[in-house]
Amino acid sequence: LQRALASRPNLVDARRYLGNALAELGRLDEARAEWRTALQIRPTNWQVYSDMGRALFVAAQYAEARAALEELIKLQPDNAFGHQRLGTIHQAEGRLDEALSHYERASAISPTAATYSNIGAVYHRLGRFDQAVAYYQRAIALRPNLSALHRNLGDAFTRQRRAADAQTAYR
Does position 2 have pLDDT exceeding 90, yes or no? Predict the structure, then answer.
């Protein structure tokens, strides 16, 4: 990639891929520089924002990840990945209403077990166990063999004092 960029420095995808590779190696400052250069060349490249958001999220750089993902959503309002990750960041930071808003948007665009489980987790944290159960059940319908989803459902049933249902969920 570096050779290609030496002769053709305006290759946006090469800069994006190099940024991703550098981030994988833990060289975030260098990765940021490549992504910034890519965005100077093509400011509306949503894929750069998506990659930045993912890599910075994984590196627990939540403020920067949030900023990148917000730009992604501006460029692609129906990007389920962006909404899912923004929801996760807001949830981790305790902004549960914002987390729900992004998770619900993500699930409307592209329903996944992970998104439904995350919505259930927010409702669980809010003490709204009926809604948590409903979303955990939706998640299980999509991924019935994922044991963590059954555990989450069992935990919600336990909070509702539904011991028999909890026991069934835990099996």
Answer: no
DSSP letter assigned to residue 45: -
Across 1-33, b (16+ Cβ under 10 Å) vs e yields beeeeeeeeebbebbbbbbbebbeeeebeebbe
- What is the 8-class DSSP label of residue 110? S
**Considering all CA atoms of the chain, what is the largest pairwise distance in Å, rounded to the nearest integer?**
67
CA distances from 133 to 26, 72, 166, 169 (A): 39, 31, 11, 11
What does each C-alpha distance from 160 to 52, 60, 125, 155 come to in angstroms?
A: 40, 34, 13, 9
pLDDT band of residue 132 (cuts 50, 70, 90) is very high
Residue 20 and residue 37 in contact, taking contact as beta carbons nearer than 8 Å: no
Residue 20: both structure tokens together: 């991703």
For residue 15, what pLDDT is reported? Answer: 87
- Residue with the two structure tokens 């403020």: 63
**Distance separating alpha carbons of residues 120 and 79, to the nearest angstrom:** 21
Is-contact 154 161, C-beta < 8 A?
no
